[in-house]
Write a structure and sequence with these properties.
23% of the residues lie in helices and 30% in strands. It has 124 residues and is an alpha+beta fold.
Length: 124
């Protein structure tokens, strides 16, 4: 059985931090549901209603990887290291693939849940 990461004190989740950000930010819960988006994220990716699955913003070939990663995080506590930046494709409002870099930090939510806050920067 994989060992859990050493417990770390995570910053508290606050939706207003994402909603007021001037850069493109998305907040996603550990079930992969969108909780909040900054105005710049809405401009980049289109309106994202609360509760929509993050997987819907990914090209089909990346969706299983996201689901597997979230499942691994929920069951083992092991996940994407805070601050790590990855370049990948997201779907914009018209369904076109956009190359972006994504940096993710974890935040503590109520009930022992985790919220992932992603800064999304267009690469192309």
């Amino acid at each position: 059985m994989p060992s859990r990461e050493r417990p770390v004190e995570l910053p508290r989740w606050d939706a207003s931090d994402v909603e007021a950000a001037t850069d493109a930010r998305l907040a996603v819960d550990d079930d992969g549901r969108l909780l909040a988006a900054s105005p710049a994220a809405v401009t980049l990716l289109g309106p994202q209603p609360t509760g929509r699955a993050l997987a819907e913003l990914l090209p089909p070939q990346l969706r299983e990887t996201l689901v597997a990663g979230l499942t691994r995080y929920r069951t083992t506590g092991v996940g994407w290291p805070d601050g790590q930046v990855l370049t990948l494709q997201l779907l914009d409002a018209e369904g076109r693939e956009r190359r972006v870099s994504v940096g993710v930090d974890r935040h503590q939510a109520g009930g022992g849940r985790t919220v992932f806050v992603a800064v999304v920067t267009p690469v192309d």
